[in-house]
User: Which sequence fits this backbone?
């Protein structure tokens, strides 16, 4: 008789880092009749399908052998050069060898965790924080500590005392049009973060996938641009929100020594980002006008933001509050005290509309009344209809006669 032994258990990290607790409810939003403000999805009808298809066709026609071959871990030289030129044009002088191309900026986070974080190390994050960053740091075995934050971003005094107390490896933030709140860190806060990093010694990971989606106001300087922080700041960028997320092309910009360690981690992870996709993205940047495309996306998204802002006071119960992001994809709302956005999501989905409850985004004490609304995936009329449904779902029960 053969013995059928049990397989060894999953690694502790695979069971301790949960998937999102609202995933199950959000799975119900896949029904086509649901208007979803939940996902962080760029609007598919705005993808430049024709331009991207032409870029792929062109590299496959001109250089099929190279496009279908293995390539270097650091990234396609033309894409690095075009990305460096674009960043320099936006005001952050960058050489191609200061960049590594990544498989989405999400991979940049994973590589940084591999290069910098030992199990038990402290990682500081904004509160609330981008959910998949919390997962990356959780997988790396970090002890994640939230920096108290307000509508202008993390509080610099709180950051300083936490750095002194916790001796963290790094501070992770999304300074511009943050996910999930849509807020933007002021220039003086950015300067203060650079100053703390320089005086007290820590890495700053500045994640900026949304910066080009600005609908009003002037750009705020990157933390990476403050001289104090130059040798300790890593800037993560992405083509997901300005070209298409399915390409999975992002980049990281940082000090050469740290990039070298990330390149070794990337070799172990995937050898390199898809050659053909990188070459197509580079060809697109040369042949097409990405700035003109981004301007079209900005104008459509700005109108969608305005439609959502216009409908919110009728959709959310009296006593709710929300912010007015100057760009990006998300808006942050707070239901009246005592409301629980997680339990109300079931009611919303029953009314064929969805949002993401805010609680899972907090590394510190969660705000159960908070929720995130994505305003870019649906068109203006759908946003208006979705808000009417939300209004019906969240309207206070009428008193019994
Ligand atoms: N950082 C933040 C703050 C994000 O919101 C996202 C995408 N939702 C990412 C990183 C990852 O983007 P990508 O891997 O597509 O570049």
Assistant:
């Amino acid at each position: 008789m053969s013995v059928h032994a049990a397989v060894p258990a999953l690694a502790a990290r695979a069971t301790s880092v949960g998937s999102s607790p609202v995933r199950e409810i959000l799975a119900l939003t896949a029904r086509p009749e649901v208007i979803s403000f939940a996902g962080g999805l760029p609007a598919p009808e705005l993808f430049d399908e024709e331009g991207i298809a032409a870029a792929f066709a062109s590299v496959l026609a001109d250089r099929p052998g190279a496009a279908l071959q293995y390539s270097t871990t650091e990234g396609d030289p033309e894409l690095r050069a075009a990305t460096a030129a674009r960043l320099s044009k936006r005001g952050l002088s960058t050489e191609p060898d200061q960049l590594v191309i990544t498989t989405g900026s999400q991979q940049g986070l994973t590589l940084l965790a591999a290069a910098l974080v030992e199990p038990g190390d402290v990682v500081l994050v904004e509160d609330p924080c981008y959910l998949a960053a919390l997962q990356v740091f959780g997988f790396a075995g970090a002890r994640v500590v939230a920096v108290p934050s307000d509508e202008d971003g993390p509080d610099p005094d709180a950051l300083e005392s936490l750095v002194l107390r916790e001796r963290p490896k790094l501070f992770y933030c999304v300074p511009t049009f943050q996910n999930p709140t849509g807020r933007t860190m002021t220039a003086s806060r950015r300067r203060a973060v650079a100053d703390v990093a320089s005086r007290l010694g820590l890495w700053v990971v500045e994640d900026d996938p949304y910066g080009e989606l600005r609908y009003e106001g002037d750009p705020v300087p990157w933390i990476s641009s403050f001289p104090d922080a130059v040798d300790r700041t890593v800037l993560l960028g992405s083509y997901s929100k300005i070209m298409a997320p399915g390409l999975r092309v992002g980049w990281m910009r940082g000090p050469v020594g740290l990039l070298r360690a990330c390149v070794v981690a990337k070799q172990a992870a995937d050898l390199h980002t898809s050659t053909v996709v990188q070459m197509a993205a580079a060809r697109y940047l040369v042949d097409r006008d990405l700035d003109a495309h981004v301007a079209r996306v900005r104008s459509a998204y700005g109108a969608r933001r305005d439609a959502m802002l216009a409908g919110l006071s009728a959709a959310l119960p009296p006593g709710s509050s929300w912010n007015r992001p100057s760009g990006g994809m998300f808006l942050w709302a707070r239901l009246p005290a005592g409301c629980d956005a997680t339990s109300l999501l079931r009611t919303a989905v029953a009314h064929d509309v969805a949002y993401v409850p805010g609680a899972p985004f907090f590394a510190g004490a969660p705000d159960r009344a908070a929720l995130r609304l994505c305003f870019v995936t649906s068109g203006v009329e759908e946003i208006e209809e979705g808000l009417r449904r939300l209004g019906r779902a969240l309207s206070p029960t009428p008193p019994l006669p």
User: Anything to note?
Assistant: The CA atoms of residues 120 and 142 lie 5 Å apart. The mean pLDDT is 94. The chain has two domains: 12-39+292-394, 49-287. The first strand starts at residue 35 and ends at 36.
